[in-house]
Specification:
Distance between the termini: 44 Å
Mean pLDDT: 81
Strand content: 5-15%
Number of strands: 7
Helix content: 55-70%
CATH topology of the largest domain: Alpha-Beta Plaits
Number of domains: 3
Low-confidence stretches: 1-9, 286-291
Radius of gyration: 28 Å
Structural class: alpha+beta
Strand order of the largest sheet: 2-3-1-6-7
Order of helices and strands: HHHHHHHEHEEHEEEHE
Length: about 350
């Protein structure tokens, strides 16, 4: 295939002319696998199932690949792996969060099981003692029922504790991502049924890696807890209706605001943004509490409102729009709010 015929083959739409010009400049090989890869990665820019940050990362990867001019087999495999990581990033984050939550739940379950194993043994000993007491059968039955009811009650309490652990982020005390997904399904259906507004905020701590680099992971945990308290305080003061706060994952937080439209949700987000910017907490620098330093962070926030016409993809689209708005806030300079 000549350079001209290759260009004619790829340049089907006017919007692809810049790509075709670049392909001519970098001398893309007449190799079907490379041509297919370029077309595939280019098409992902229009894939609405991907977030705006993912699409931007993929297009940056595509341009970098073409400008490098390395079209070896090893480079091909490297690009395949890199684009797969970008596409699957949200799913890997969900999986990692689920594994962490499951590990926490398992530890709590093992702790409870250890305690209750002793209680069950005590019940067995109590049963033997009651039977050997020589009391009237009715009295023995009454004592055994009482002991059994008490054990069942504490086990019911344990079940409630486990349920709470399963829906709560250990570090911040907020709802975790798993519970947030349940909330989104329930609240979006309710909003459509009652014809009421529903908005979502996605908040991300700006340059969180720098916080960890400067203060260590313990300082990062302090930052997450500080932001949690500020968000809770602002929302409690300003929102009278139903709302949910959750740790979305890593240094991201989510707020679901029932009955609140995009305009009011933006005002809410601006207040959160300002409050976090003004927040301060003293932490020990280098692990030495005597040598304190001040930790301060800012938030970027994306705001989106539910559109009932989204149909079966309402929850996914709401999260996606909030994430796209968050990306816009980051791209515009951070420490600000953007609306989808």
């Amino acid at each position: 295939m000549t350079a001209k015929s290759k260009s004619e083959c790829l340049c089907v739409l006017p919007g692809q002319r810049s790509l075709c010009k670049l392909l001519a400049e970098v001398r893309l090989p007449d190799d079907p696998k490379w041509i297919s890869l370029v077309l595939y990665m280019r098409s992902l820019e229009y894939n609405e199932a991907l977030g705006i940050s993912q699409r931007a990362s993929l297009q940056k990867l595509l341009l970098t690949m073409l400008q490098d001019g390395d079209f070896s087999d090893s480079k091909f495999q490297t690009i395949i792996r890199m684009q797969e990581r970008v596409v699957t990033a949200p799913y890997r984050q969900k999986l990692e969060a689920a594994v962490a939550e499951s590990s926490s739940l398992l530890r709590e379950f093992e702790s409870i099981l250890t305690r209750r194993r002793g209680d069950v043994q005590d019940l067995g000993q109590t049963t033997v003692a009651v039977v050997e007491s020589g009391d009237q059968p009715a009295t023995m039955v009454r004592k055994l029922r009482k002991s059994f009811r008490e054990l069942v009650q504490v086990m019911d309490d344990d079940a409630k504790i486990l349920e709470e652990v399963a829906r709560t982020d250990v570090l911040t005390g907020l709802a975790n991502r798993r519970f947030l997904d349940e909330v989104l399904l329930r609240t979006t259906e309710k909003a459509v049924t009652t014809d009421s507004a529903l908005s979502m905020l996605l908040c991300d701590i700006d340059e969180f890696k720098k916080v960890n680099d400067r203060f260590g992971h313990a300082g990062g945990d302090v930052a997450l807890q500080m932001v949690t308290e500020i968000i809770r305080s602002v929302v409690d003061d300003c929102v009278s209706g139903e709302f949910y706060c959750a740790r979305f994952g890593g240094d991201e937080f989510a707020l679901v605001l029932c009955g609140m439209d995009l305009g009011d949700a933006r005002v809410m987000a601006e207040r959160v943004c300002v409050a976090v910017e003004q927040g301060r907490v003293d932490v020990g620098a280098g692990g030495d509490q005597a040598d304190s330093d001040t930790l301060a962070v800012t938030l970027s926030i994306g705001v989106a409102q539910l559109d009932p016409t989204w149909g079966d993809v309402m929850t996914d689209r709401l999260v996606q729009d909030a994430d796209s708005a968050l990306y816009q806030a980051k791209a515009a300079g951070r420490n600000r709010v953007a609306c989808a």
